[in-house]
Amino acid sequence: MSRRIATQIKALFSSSASRRDKNDELKATDKTVDAGTLDPPALPRVRYEDLHLIPQVLAAYPAFYLTDHPLPPPPFPQARQLLTAPESVKATLIDKNKSTTRGYHHAKNSRREWWDYSPENGDTRLMLDDEEFQGASTEYHDQSVELLKQICQQFNQNGDVAIPEEVLENGGFTTMRYLRYSPDVFNEQQTAEGDILAAGASRLDGKKVDNANPLAKISFAKGEYTQSNDDSDDLPRIEAHTDLSLFTLIAATEPSGLYMWNRRCGVFPAPPVENAVLIMPGDCMAYYTAVKGMNPLDSLDAISEKTVLPAAHAVVVPKEAGERYSVVVFLRPDRDAVVSRRMVRRKGVEEVEETALWWLATEKLEVEGRKCWLADV
What we know:
- This protein is of the alpha+beta class.
- An 8-stranded mixed sheet has the order 1-2-10-7-12-5-4-3. The chain has a 4-stranded antiparallel sheet with strand order 6-11-8-9, with no helix packed on it. A two-stranded antiparallel ribbon has the order 13-14.
- The chain has helices at about 5-15, 55-60, 75-85, 85-90, 130-155, 165-170, 285-290, 355-365; strands at about 45, 65, 105, 110-115, 175-180, 235-240, 245-250, 260, 265-270, 275-280, 315, 325-330, 340-345, 350-355.
- The chain has a single domain, classed as Jelly Rolls (Sandwich).
- Keywords: Iron, Metal-binding, Oxidoreductase.
């Protein structure tokens, strides 16, 4: 991707002329919360009965809270049960093939640990041997996936198919994650070595952070997470990134620690809302909702008023705030699913080039600066 296109795309996020839908049905205010404040979330709330509004909402906002949904209570007890289990138990949940979408992982210096459930092939080998744990975990995963598929279907209305049915017909490599951020996750002796890094894991673990005002330490102007060297303490955190998914569903405990970036480069907190889940679009949505026949990799012209851009977000939890648990469900296509097609000319001949999800995942892991979608390199 050329530097010119990368600059244009970043300008799209920071434009003061943000594209807002005027429809009164949204029942949401367009309020940007300045860094350093703790005002209510600058994100709209959408009722489950109003799912049809979601394409309009996401043309103007980076994410939304879904209320009155049919999901069971988030399985926070199960998250605590697994993530506070003895280390000997966690060791049995590490995938022998070093999978980044199955089993137990940790990033010690970032003070976070997580467990991923993947239902591929009905595999339950990396789950706790506990019937109640397995039942609650699979129920929440399955119902969340169905909910996210319903959201995807809102983009396939009136004969317009943005997300191919074959993408939604199987589970792809959809996963559910139990995540714990805590200053007590690992002691000082444990943080010296041995981190297990998964896709999107922090590469800033060696830096220090000021915990006086974590919001002020986040800048998304260049698609990165900046930190201060004013304090000697490490905070539980994950750097700014976008998710490699269609949609991400999040339920979290207080303290929130989640911060988001809107299209004006405004950074604001996105705390948990009672009886609601946070829904964020991922990288895939930019491709599936681009102008038909065009690819965002080629030109900014591929991004229209209806294009859904992925939500850039980060987590920073102050030490004195205790620990934070979250339950996250990632709806992803199959690894071989074609995300976009574009015409390219090779040796004077035009041909169709297909981009599969695995290619995007590989690039995001290997290309420095691609934690955020199409960030400059």
